Amino acid sequence: xxVAVFAAERVVWTGNEPISWNTEVYVGTQFETxxxxxxxxVKDNVIKVTVVAGIDEPQYVMTYKxxxxxxxxxxxxxxADGVMSYTVESDQIAxxxxxxxxxxxxxxxxxxxxxxxxxxxxxxxxxQPGESRVLWEGNETLAWNExxxxxxxxxxxxxxxxQLIVTVSAKGxxxxxxxxxxxxxxxxxxxxxxxxxxxxxPYEAVFTLTAAHxxxxxxxxxxxxxxxxxxxxxxxxxxxxxxxxxxxxxxxDTEVWSGDVAISWNQEVYAGSELDTxxxxxxxxAGLAExxxxxxxxxxxxxxxxxxxxxxxxxxxxxxxxxxxxxDGFFTYRVASEQIAxxxxxxxxVIRGQGYHxxxxxxxxxxxxxFVEEVLSHQQSVFSNQRYNxxxxxxxxxxxxxxxxxxxxxxQQ
Length: 413
Description:
The chain is mostly beta strands. The protein is built from six helices and 28 strands.
């Protein structure tokens, strides 16, 4: 069962109801929602139920009263991270649930909250260059089935060099595990991404679109594959200047935090947690601006350590991963837009991943080049092809950073 990502959510019930159809195994009953709980429910809304397991293998059942005979009918749900979810499949089901409620049955769990997630029209608005949007989240095992179906409205957002990123959470025993994209008519678009040599999960399978791919997917698209489990689909818009920066010059670095925090998202592999900078120091990134660099220094990294830098994006504070470049002893991110800079300044960063210790965070500010242009202006007629760094010193063709030549600045990768 797929779960679409929606921005607007409303809590429709809270409490603590134990669920059981065998009191010898777990003390509880079935629970029928109060009248009016789902007033206003419509097709494509997502019902999210917070569940707390009381036994090792609980059984979760969501039931509604269908049709003219009010027949008790079980709905197809998914359960992940303590939430049982159901996406309303039709206008008729929506109306029947709104009028008649739901019955929660099963074995060995408690219900503590019910939320209805509603579609936000802004989700279909164009993205700015460099922005990302979560299109789908769920927990689906692929065996040539199609999941994460997207409409033509979403397909219209795609363009050349954009990326569609599929998070693969695990793979099975298939000889050739893979993921691929299909258009609205189930035709394959582009090359498959093979995962037979991938051993570390979660893994991001990245489809970089050509102009032909974007045109083929414009009418809507789906994710397909075989022998893998997928959990997320993200659209990232292309931005030409959105590249990781090199360390050092031409940035002036300021240390904003130091300490020692072990990072891990799998305790069985490495003992640790995550670092939320907002909880440590709310104004850690005050004054952050587009083009600044953020460097996270680490120690004691295990082999195949995973580095992840996340911020809370948009009105819904969606956890969104940033593109980082790993260097010797640190990983770095260059702030792609003023909006991202403001959201990081207001909400902080969450440093995640697997198998390392964070010991230092540094913010780099680009140095100004105005005075250098004035100093060099009288030299250009003599040294017309000479390159200079930000300090007015001659540099060679292999220099990395801001370069001045013939009175003009450019960034040399």
